[in-house]
Design brief:
homodimer, 273 residues, alpha/beta, Aspartate Aminotransferase, domain 2, Aspartate Aminotransferase, domain 1, 2 domains, 6-stranded mixed sheet, 3-stranded antiparallel sheet
Amino acid sequence: MNLLPLNGKAAYVESGVWANKAIKEAKLFGTTEVVATSKDKNFSYVPKNYSIPKDASYLHLTSNNTIYGTQIKAYPESPIPVVCDMSSDIFSKPVDVSKFDLIYAGAQKNMGPAGVTLVIVKNDILGKTGRSNPTMFEYQTHIDSDSLYNTPPVFPIYVCMATLEWLQSIGGVAAIEKINNQKAEMLYSEIDSNPMFQGTAAAEDRSFMNACFLLTNPELEDDFNKVLKENGIIGLKGHRSVGGFRASMYNALPLESVKVLTTIMKEFAMQKA
Amino acid sequence: MNLLPLNGKAAYVESGVWANKAIKEAKLFGTTEVVATSKDKNFSYVPKNYSIPKDASYLHLTSNNTIYGTQIKAYPESPIPVVCDMSSDIFSKPVDVSKFDLIYAGAQKNMGPAGVTLVIVKNDILGKTGRSNPTMFEYQTHIDSDSLYNTPPVFPIYVCMATLEWLQSIGGVAAIEKINNQKAEMLYSEIDSNPMFQGTAAAEDRSFMNACFLLTNPELEDDFNKVLKENGIIGLKGHRSVGGFRASMYNALPLESVKVLTTIMKEFAMQKA
């Protein structure tokens, strides 16, 4: 709406449901070219080594795919502006913001409560669509008004501030990255070493925010769900399009919680062996 | 965006800044006809007795004008659907919702914290524009998903629930209307009887949510501001387009607060007499 010119073209990497939704909405404003997709393997990997059309207005990426448990580990070099939906892994690790022309992210994973969205945009990519959007939907409106064009959602913004102050106090994104790496390595090594479980995402593309895994014997799912419940672990049901289990490890989840889960996985394997 | 057909026409009553903003945005999607305006007297009254074009898709009204302190007391009979922005007086008094085809209201006056908007819409006025809006901006999307298409702003919604439970516990909109009437009558009778002050809005259109008034001697403004500050009263500065003072009396303001203000106004008059 803010970037795609009338009769213009935008390039999209289709890496999951959120990418798909972005493509669907962009089609209302111009042409979309899907330059790469992992749909052939149910989005279990991140497309790589694709060519980026120089005549497109921008390349759109999704940094982390919550449903399929994949994450971009290395961003492509792009001859055109790069737009990235970082909703589900922003502030989980250092990112070179200067390499992106527009970053957007809903607050509700690593920032704060639902109800506010963060946008980082380079001024010079705006104002080129030849389209008049509603005032509220123009990024320029919010730039011109220092993000106070409308009465802002004060409480969600306040909690984002408090969360970022907490993050800064423990050493910032560099510090949380180390903890997130520990959490992910602990869980994925359990998934890989425990014969009862198997990961669903390609190993090199595994998300450090959302680990998706199945039981090697699907008939034991009810048993495992029972054990999870008995131990106070909730919300591990995988999305219906993948099945199995999904453990989310956003910044707010302590290492101790992953330890609890991996201990239970070990015990479950011993019981059922 | 949801109601005005391609090449269609909508009728607007221009009663202040918020009406103006609505007209500006509607122009992006079709033709607007301003059927009545009070711009000639700086929006100090509510336009009445205008004719409503039968070929317009809807008539748009603003129930209460915060900046100018005016409020619709009797809604017009309309041959076409009526859309009303009730942001600043919803839940302040009983309203026959069935007479409106679409009511919208930001939460942050009588409902809850900023960050959520209430919409009440008749199903049969939707789906007639011939336009494809972004999915998120189609009311039908939210109807189809029971308002859970997106991750909702949970905290603002929760506080709205708590506020509405409180309102219900004291007797609902009929009970709060009596209190709001008492508050408004107390303040306006002081404004009218005290020679130091004068109201800016036409008496019959005075808002029961926002009372705008001036000092008859503008040179005393600094003195009155000092007295307000000494008594812990803040936020009474009028909007720059009207000047003077504006006392807002939303549901959350108790009668006692209005008593404090009117007492100070009386004392100020005695001091300066």
